[in-house]
Design brief:
The chain is mainly beta. The chain has no helices and 11 strands. Strands 2, 4, 5, 6, 9, 10 and 11 form a 7-stranded mixed sheet that branches. The chain has a 4-stranded antiparallel sheet with strand order 1-3-8-7, with no helix packed on it. β4 and β5 form a beta hairpin. The protein is globular and about 45 Å long.
Length: 116
């Protein structure tokens, strides 16, 4: 069993910054990709950013240049630094972990609200 614990969400004004963290624990044998997804009210869950075990990153076009994903393999933790936040970034942000065995795990979600 794998647990993902997220932290760092909150309320911020437009133009502000937040940093999300997600720590994985439990029976982790082979983490491949860690990442962040988000879901706004009435919308489908969408990819925000991912980072694989080699450090390669992938970003949604809407966050490129503003968000930075990073990973501490020793701590099984992934971070999302979010700068220049916009009201359209308001959503529940979910941590995601995929193993080499193709198992997928989700965190409980953390609310990010950006006021205009």
């Amino acid at each position: 069993q794998v647990q993902l614990v997220e932290s760092g969400g909150g309320l911020v004004q437009a133009g502000g910054s937040l940093r999300l963290s997600c720590a994985a624990s439990g029976s982790i044998f082979s983490i491949n990709v860690m990442g962040w997804y988000r879901q706004a009210p009435g919308k489908q869950r969408e990819l925000v950013a991912t980072v694989n075990s080699g450090g390669s990153t992938n970003y949604a076009d809407s966050v490129k240049g503003r968000f930075t994903i990073s990973r501490d393999n020793a701590k099984n933790t992934v971070y999302l630094q979010m700068n220049d936040l916009k009201p359209e970034d308001t959503a529940v942000y979910y941590c995601n972990l995929k193993t080499l065995l193709q198992d997928t795990y989700w965190g409980q979600g953390t609310q990010v609200t950006v006021s205009s």
